Amino acid sequence: MIGATLKKLIYVCVLSLVFIFSSFPVSAKQITLSVGEWPPYMGSDLPNNGAIAEIITEAFSDIGYQVAFEFYPWARAMEQAQLGRVDGTGLWLKTESRESEFYFSEPVLEEKHVFFYNRTNKPKLDSFEALKSYSYVGLEDFSYGIDLDNIIRAKQINMHRVSNDEQAFGMLLKNRVSIYPQEMAVGYYLLRQHFSEQDMKKIGHIEQPFMRKNSHIILSKADKDNADILRMFDEALLRMKQSGRYDQLLAKVIKF
After folding, report:
1. Does the keyword Signal apply (predicted)?
2. What number is the average pLDDT over the span 190-206?
3. Burial of 246: CB neighbours in 10 Å, binned 0-12, 13-18, 19+
4. Which terminus of the chain is more exposed, N or C, with fewer CB under 10 A?
5. Considering its fold, how many domains does the chain have in total?
6. What are phi and psi of 33, to 5 degrees?
7. Averaged confidence pLDDT in the chain
8. What pLDDT is recorded for position 232?
9. Torsion of CA 201, 206, 208, 211, to 10 degrees
10. Average pLDDT value for residue range 29-58
11. Does residue 183 sit in the same domain as residue 221?
């Protein structure tokens, strides 16, 4: 009798422990990404680190991961990932050298790069040759895509290089140059941050992007599990797009 009672007591205790521990929230696994400052998409001073950071965070949360973002200058962000100090980095374009070191997610963002101009001097860009008829301003050490880079390198167009976007838009407003190439949402964000509403009204952009780029988060191939993690991330990202949540978050920064 005592033995049966003891067994029943043990059984009740075990069930109680199972219930107690199962009621505790399961802590999410953490993934650390090194990223660069790229407002309005990502930034250490932006709400929730920016719309793209929110998208990445929600997609990873859907598959049980908590994301920690570490902000660095872009070159150092890549270096941190290459040295294995973080799990991955973003956002990056696909290149052969990067694909040898990292697994790539599906595109997290399609960048749309356009030509900004002063409305008092709208360029007529009806052909590739027409590009050569205008003067440009661009950022130091910045690539504008293979086609544009090639004609810049061949000195077929005149591009003034400056250190920041504020200088570039300033030259455009003074009609010292005809065109400033920049990612569309980034360009308008910078105009809102640094210039008056009156100045903003003077700036327009050519509707057709001269370049579209897909940007990805990348995880190190040193950890083979990262391939499966990104596969699950891609599925979560697709669910966000299908539900409309992706567009809802991105709409916060697509303001023209």
Report:
1. yes
2. 95
3. buried
4. N
5. 2
6. -120, 130
7. 88
8. 98
9. -100
10. 95
11. no
Reported as half-sphere exposure (CB side, CA atoms, 13 A), residue 103 has a value of: 18
Q: What CATH number should be reported for the domain holding residue 68?
A: 3.40.190.10
- What's the alpha-carbon Rg for the chain, to the nearest Å? 25
pLDDT confidence tier of residue 19, bands split at 50, 70 and 90: very low
Q: Is residue 64 part of a domain?
A: yes
Domain of 120 in residue numbering reads as 111-211
Provide the CA 39 distance to its chain's centre, in angstroms: 9
Whether 130 and 74 map to the same domain: the answer is no
Q: Same domain, yes or no, for 152 and 74?
A: no
Nearest to 182 by CA among 204, 198, 152, 156: 204
| Residue 141 sits in the same domain as residue 183 | yes
Residues 178, 192 within the same domain: yes
Only one residue has tokens 């995880």, namely 219
Between strands 135-139 and 158-162, the pairing is parallel
Position 130 scores a pLDDT of 85
pTM here is: 0.78
Say if 15 falls within a structural domain. no
Is residue 5, in this structure, part of any structural domain at all?
Answer: no
